[in-house]
Amino acid sequence: MTTALAATPLPALLPDWMDPDTLINGFIAQYGTWALAAICAIVIIETGLLFPFLPGDSLLFTAGLFTGTGQIHLPIWAVAGILGLAAFIGPQSGYWIGRLSGPKIFNRPDSRFFKKAYIDRTHAFFERYGGRAIVLAQFVPFVRTYIPVAAGVGKMPYPRFIKFNVIGALVWGVGVTLLGYWLGRFDIVKDNIEVALILVVFVSIIPILVETGKHWLEARKAAPALEPTED
Question: What percent of the chain is predicted at pLDDT more than 90?
Fold first, then answer.
């Protein structure tokens, strides 16, 4: 018989309704085997339906961890595969929302859940990284919600979008779930889940740090070539 994860002494990082531990335990209690469907719905909503205030990274990680502890009664290959599919479907929805709605969706007035600042940040991210932004954005809260919409508004060729979408779903949806499953075998992780979630957020931004470093090095190398030469 499995037991629930031990509570961490750290204060909660998220409100109860957004805390992944609370969410998944609640889903398991209410839906049993169908809890995974509720988790998938949250992933799809966050990555494709313009609602960025959901704990995508930590939810995937916790789902993998709960699979390892037996609280989700499915094999890890099924859990990771299903969540990877959800991470593919969500951006597909966002892409077609942007493709069919056009630029007017980015000109909406600010509301409780929609801020022009999110769009400006997403546009700058997309301009900087191009197609790779579809993959990298999976690891950036808020940006991962709007980047598929930006790709749709910009009419990125659909086959090209699918290619990056598949890579992102595998690296993020499957990868973060497997990471939770693997790390969940260690008692120190199970007993300090909020610390583990902080580490997940840190690890998730590593691809962005790498890309930023590459751009910085390229700019440094290009700088001497742009300097005027003396006659």
Answer: 17
